[in-house]
Amino acid sequence: MNKSVLLIIGGGIAAFKSLELIRLLSKQGIRSRAILTAAAKEFVTPLSVASLTGEKVYDDLFSLTDEAEMGHIQLSRSADLLVVAPATADLMAKMATGQANDLATTALLATDKPVLIAPAMNVRMWQHPATQRNLRTLTADGIMTIGPDEGDMACGEYGPGRMSEPEAICAAITDFFQHNAEKPLRGRKMLVTAGPTHEPIDPVRYIANRSSGKQGYAIAAALADLGAEVVLVSGPTRLDSPRGVTRQNVESANDMLAACEAALPVDAAIFAAAVADWRVASEADQKIKKKEGRLPSLSLAENPDILATVSALTQGRPALVVGFAAETEAIIENGKAKLARKGCDWIVANDVGTGTGTFGGDENHVFLLTREGVEDWPKQSKDAVARDLAARITTFFQGVDV
Asked: What does the UniProt keyword field contain (predicted)?
């Protein structure tokens, strides 16, 4: 399989299972390096671990020899996956609070690779609110878990807390690698904008549009699912952040432009947000009062054109810039005109007229306009549109060096 694991062995009676795990991984062609905590060496010896991994075993954060040969930062990033087995209650607590007081916790804090933990502890420790709170924190941070299983424990009690068997952990690791082999956008960074912008009139009122942000959020999620690092710049919405996406909330068009510029450089930028074309030229400091018989006069100014600005960059321009055209008539004609006018690479044009249900709805009928022509995609869910667009973006980048 040509993959590698950094196995962090915690101090618990289940540490002996790590030896079998190493053997099983080796049979799958997965290379292992190991870190032993001080407590782990009370249960398994560095010699037994090294004999199975065929690699030096690491256990000392302050070993100058190790730092010269394999610094702890390099060690934490040299593997494709970090596996903590057993993950004791103590290790989980340290991970959840960001401690780094030994080699194991330092490697876990310094890594930029995915982490899988196999918890193992007494049933009361597992069920304790502090451990469950730490588990929720780790899960929210993107840490993957397997187990624990339920059964008899070395302490004589019965219940959840047994570390999963080596066969199950090995299967989870191989499944992870097989799944991630299907992430063709890994190593790519993508910028996605979504939602409306709110352009303030006074502290109470604003100019906006009916965009829900659903399509942009779906695109961000689809790109992240294919392995891309995604920055989602979002106007005001009621949507939850997609998993694995970095979200930055903004309100106005000026805010959105600044956030997009800060996110550069990226490989691709997909501008799905429905940015307001105009703003009030002079925002009132106080609420504009209603006066009988007199209507307020609002002077409008043009907002920055985010799509055109990024498309026109001479340095740091994304390799692919995709704009959206929300139209109510002459969808293709207006989309073609926007493609030429903005200088972007693709336009996704859709009909948002009355009765289409596009704004706020869950379906979309889009046309993909490129320099090569027009594609009429069938009406489908916004998630399906997002997956199809992500697939086209993947095709674009095939053969292009990261």
From this structure: Decarboxylase, Flavoprotein, FMN, Ligase, Lyase, Magnesium, Metal-binding, Multifunctional enzyme
Q: Residue 176: which domain range? A: 3-180
Global pTM? 0.59
Domain membership of residue 402 (yes or no) is no
The domain tally of the chain equals 2
332 is in an annotated binding site: no
Instruction: Please indicate whether residue 155 is annotated as part of the active site.
Output: yes
For 35-60, the pLDDT digits (tens) are 999 999 999 999 999 999 999 999 88
Residue 113 counted as an annotated binding residue: no
**Whether the predicted pLDDT of 234 surpasses 90:** yes
- What single string gives the DSSP state of each residue in 4-58? EEEEEEPSSGGGGHHHHHHHHHHHTTEEEEEEE-TTGGGTS-HHHHHHHHSS-EE
- Is 159 contained in some domain? yes
Residues 6+ apart with CB under 8 A from 29: 1, 2, 3
Residue 304 assigned to a binding site: yes
Would the annotation count 307 as a binding residue? Answer: yes
Tokens of 401: 């060096």
Tens of pLDDT, residue by residue over 349-371, are: 998 865 565 666 778 899 999 99
Query: Out of 155, 170, 260, 344, which one is annotated catalytic?
Result: 155
